[in-house]
Amino acid sequence: MDKPKQKSRYPGIRAFEQEERDLFFGREHEANELFSMVKVRPLTVLFSKSGIGKTSLLNAGLIPRLEEDFFRPVKIRLQDTTHSPAYTFKKILTPFLQKEYLKQNAGCTPEKASLWQFLRACKFVKGDVEMTPVLIFDQFEEFFNHEPADRDELVELLSDLVGERLPYTEQEVFRSIPRRERTDEQLDWHTPIRARILFSIRADQVSQLDELKIRIPTVLHDRFHLKPLNQQTAATAILEPALKEDPAFETPPFRYDAVALEEMLDTLSNKLREIESFQLQLLCQHVEQQVKQRYANQNA
Fold first, then answer.
1. Which end of the chain has fewer surrounding CB within 10 Å, N or C?
2. HSE of 225, CA atoms in CB hemisphere, 13 A
């Protein structure tokens, strides 16, 4: 039987995953601030330079907090330009789709449904509690690699969600139903969808969001600028994972010498004493591998 793969304390070149929340240090303040924004704002834009750690903040900082507070985060990537954003959106949300509910109220198949109808027919529940969906578009700059005509349908949906309104076609259908004949299910169906939206985008690509301002005038109103770590938070991100005790790790717990830590922070810092998460994780992973080799040699 194969031995389970051992865990690293530092992800290196990749982003933190959701299950690595207990190793994600140095971003407590940012995670709480972003969570507070997403809870109350229809649309939040998270932006930073590449390598600062947006995806890690989403995975190990924001998403666990959302899941603990009756929100259902749904991560969406639009990097595949061989399919339209609408196709990818439906594919990712298909596990939540109630096909019979869609057929009864929209009278169509999932393939023929508008994005609003498709999302309205999705149910996000935990036990008996209905949760608010949070549509998280990671690396949203990829959206603008699609042809403009292919982007329109998703922009239309996002516009209706941010404006908390029914699409015009749904308004017309609802008006056509005599008041006395409207059922509870029809009233539920024709209620604006309550959702939250987050765009995560590189700082040098934020200007592309101007294209959406005609349909979503408030697209740049609520922005969260993720900045590099300072030396204090960077030290926390270096030291704390090394102290974690878990036999699944590649190494036993270890500590950094004060001089070594100071040298690491100085090496990683720019002129403003800022430290990029990506570079920090690479260096720490290298240290971890050195520790692993040392213990292997001692036990050989």
1. N
2. 7
Angstrom distance (rounded) from CA 65 to CA 59:
10
CA distance 10 to 296: 19
DSSP tag of 26: S
**Nearest Cα residue to 42 out of 155, 144, 163, 124:** 163
Amino acid at position 216, single letter: I
Distance between CA 272 and CA 141 in Å, rounded? 28
For residue 227, give the amino acid letter: K
Q: Coil, strand, or helix at residue 100?
A: helix
The model carries a pTM of: 0.93
112 phi/psi in degrees, rounded to 5: -90, -10
In whole angstroms, how far apart are CA 110 and each of 93, 96, 216, 262?
11, 12, 26, 57
Between residues 296 and 188, the one the model is more confident about? 188
Question: Cβ–Cβ contacts within 10 Å for residue 62, how many?
Answer: 27
Torsional sign, CA 188, 190, 195, 200 = positive
pLDDT digits (tens, 9 = 90+) for 251-283: 999 999 999 999 999 999 999 999 999 999 999
What are the tens digits of pLDDT across the range 156-174?
999 999 999 999 999 999 9
C-beta separation of 162 from 218 below 8 A: yes
Q: Could you tell me which of 108, 101, 18 has the C-alpha nearest to residue 62?
A: 18
Interhelix angle for 231-243 vs 277-298, to 10°? Answer: 30
Which residues of the chain form CATH 3.40.50.300? Answer: 27-225
Residue 259 CA to residue 253 CA, distance in Å, equals 19
Give residues with Cβ within 8 angstroms of 248, minimum separation 6. 4, 6, 7
Averaged pLDDT of the chain: 94
Q: Amino acid identity, residue 271?
A: K
pLDDT at 300: 65
User: What tokens were used for 15?
Assistant: 């982003």
